[in-house]
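User: I'm new to structure prediction. If I give you an amino acid sequence, what do you actually give back? Let's try with this one:
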Amino acid sequence: NQQQQQPKLAERPASSSYKLPLDEMFDCTHQDMK
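Assistant: Good question. You get back a string of structure tokens that encode the predicted 3D arrangement of the chain. For your 34 residues, that looks like this:
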């Protein structure tokens, strides 16, 4: 991940704003839910 300090998914705007691969998106979401 070559991204700046960004808030967690819950605090982020729509995922469309960030160009992240679906795999990473789902992974982050699953980790957040745990």
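You can read the tokens as a compact description of the fold. Here is one thing that stands out. The first helix runs from residue 22 to 33.
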